[in-house]
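Running this now, will post back.
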Amino acid sequence: MKISDDDFTLFGLAPTQALVREDLDARRRDLQSRVHPDRFAAEGDAAQRLAMQWAVRVNQAYQRLKDPLSRAAYLCELRGVPIDAERNTAMPTAFLMQQMQWREALDEARDLAAVERLDAAVAADERAMFDQLTELLDRRGDTVAAAAQVRSLMFLARFRHDIERRLDALDADR
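Update: finished.
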């Protein structure tokens, strides 16, 4: 185990989008127990500092791998296709049209039930997009298409947040 290992190697997991969360959680607990700074208290400050670096590294890797969207972005980066969402906003035309329809629907939704229906529809589309992303990364090996899908899902995550804020506002008005 090297601190410079990629997250998957660090956790002893295959570099795939489809991870079993329980396996990831178990590996995290195992790694944390092995590198926890308290285990090195008798070995002095230098050993504790190194253990702290390891603990931070394990936590960072866990945070990246537990989230399907950040895991997919990381896989794309590992495979030589960084997402670069700040500069590369390319998305399929059909998805751009869908974005516009969702935005209009959210703008036009006047009551809680309408926003909840939109949220349910968007959540279903999001699940389907994640399924397609797993197919692209794990079975087809099409990292370029997967990167575009990740960018689309990043938009979707922001839009779902907008829906949540709208739901909170409508709920507060009741």
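Residues 7-66 form a domain with the Helix Hairpins fold (CATH 1.10.287.110). More later if anyone needs it.
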